[in-house]
Amino acid sequence: MDKGTIAVIPVRKGFADNTVSEAIAEAGGRAILIGEETERAASFLETPSLQLLCLEAVAFSPARWSLLLRSYLEEQDLVIIPATPDGRDLAPRIAYELKWPLITGAIKVGPGYAYTVRHPRETMLEYRFDRPVVVTILPGARGLEPLPSGAGHPSITVSDSTIATESSEEGSDALVLDILSSTPGELNLTEAEKIIAGGAGLGSKDAFELLELLAARLGAAAGATRVATDAGWLSHDRQIGSTGVTVRPYWYVALGISGASQHLAGVVDPEHVAAVNLDPSCPMMALAELPIVTDAPKVLDEMVKMLSANRLSTEFMNQQV
Ligand SMILES: Cc1cc2nc3c(=O)[nH]c(=O)nc-3n(C[C@H](O)[C@H](O)[C@H](O)COP(=O)(O)OP(=O)(O)OC[C@H]3O[C@@H](n4cnc5c(N)ncnc54)[C@H](O)[C@@H]3O)c2cc1C
Fold it and tell me: 225 C-alpha to center of ligand 1: Å?
């Protein structure tokens, strides 16, 4: 286990997901960027001490890319791939080509070890390996410290027994028929520059349906606290916080959220924060540059009505982003 660690970053038309720097940092600054206009994508990276290889390739084709990458990656013993939608697609193909095990959804990885979380997200698994592996790393997880060994979480030794033995001689990819734009309310939270999140103060699933509608109208992503996702008002992938996703928005609107430390741990450096709450002294209101003491479900209702009637200009909400 001393050949080396490298990150593989999928690139689409000069852009990589803005969380890929974490995978590169986890790989000690060594990375292969693969896709179209990789040098342009490299110019946007912020990770210092980079040792980068830019591999120009046809538009996203995980099977063909993994064949192309094989000769580069065989020289390594740890390949780290961000668990973005493209990364999650590419990683199993690469693992298959290399005949290496794949460990998915790590929060921390290094030579010989990886820690992952499984649903419910409090369940942590510790992997130990003394053979080459491919690992995907969760966006926003860098900096989280796993529980120490012996803290009660299962430990798994990765062996050769689960590795596939047949090889594909040529890659076969799905045929892309059309690319549809996503619904803004369902935007990837980790990439969203505008987020409208709701908490227990919204009080019902109906209110969260309005929240998603409002987010969609404003080109924002909808988020929630754990109380709200546990109540089934929004899906668990929308949960922001220490056991949810970490977000880095330009603006963050919090409706009926108290601002518990576990929630705020997932909200990193927003430029602007507005909060609507009945309690003027809760942490979320203290954090907000625009704290509004009033009933959050009513505000939500009114904003959706105003947008439906085109009386509220979205220009202000869209500016400077
Ligand atoms: C190990 C662990 C991990 C956790 N992980 C997370 C996590 O990842 N994310 C997360 O969010 N939480 C997490 N939590 C839970 C966290 O501690 C809080 O319980 C949760 O964030 C509170 O959610 P909330 O703000 O929606 O609810 P509450 O704390 O109940 O706050 C509701 C707020 O709504 C306001 N309100 C009530 N009615 C109205 C109204 N009509 N109009 C306006 N405001 C109103 C209240 O004044 C209050 O401020 C975790 C907890 C633990 C122990």
Answer: 6
